[in-house]
Amino acid sequence: MIRNEQILFIDGRPLTLSADPGKKVYGERLVGISGKEYREWSPNRSKLSAYLCLGGSFFPFFNDTDVLYLGAASGTTASHVSDIVPSGKVYCVEFSPRTFRDLIGTCGSRKNMIPILGDAASPEGYRFAVDNVDVVYQDVAQKGQADILADNMECFSARYGMVSIKARSEDVTASPEKIFEKACGRLEERGMRVICSTSLEKYEKAHSMIAVERTV
Q1: pTM over 0.90
Q2: How far apart are the first and last CA of the chain?
Q3: Secondary structure (H, E, C), 129-185
Q4: Under 8 Å CB-to-CB from 164, ≥6 apart: which residues?
Q5: What is the mean pLDDT for each group of 10 consecutive residues in the chain (216 residues)?
């Protein structure tokens, strides 16, 4: 069971308490409940929402959690994380200049979202702009996803990490199950304890959400 006052579940679907009432980020439905405004969090548009809808129970995001979000794109999921950690910061790293322009627009009215143009595989390139964080969340479709997560967790002293592993970005010939197993093994080699590995197959083909805790 997720314990976070910023999230409600209705019919198994999550909604987040809006940090920017009256505004939509990607056309999501706004819902008024007990005098508060919530944003419907679609599992078809967000791998983190898909993880929750599929029963994911490890969720290290609280009111004051500081988050490094790698692969923030235009800010769809990152905006929901912003809702969930209203007293924390969400450092949003995106590599594509074109997508980054959209991300800036999303961050504009959200005081706790910080857009950063950078390469997630090179954390030293944005070290000057990011304080140490509690959690690294990663959605980056490129090879070496486990090492990218570990490098950033080490660089920013994060205790917890969550990574949406896209199997086809690692190896199009190997089975997704083998790739997920290999990613878990690599994270353990890097000093992480694997908390869970949850298939997102219902919503995202050949994807798994892996959550870890840094032990060294």
Answers
A1: yes
A2: 28
A3: HCCCCCEEEECCCCCCHHHHHHHHHHHCCCCEEEEEEEHHHHCCCCCHHHHHHHHHH
A4: 47, 48, 51, 138, 139, 200, 204, 207, 208, 209
A5: 83 95 96 96 97 95 97 98 98 98 96 98 98 98 97 98 97 96 98 97 97 95
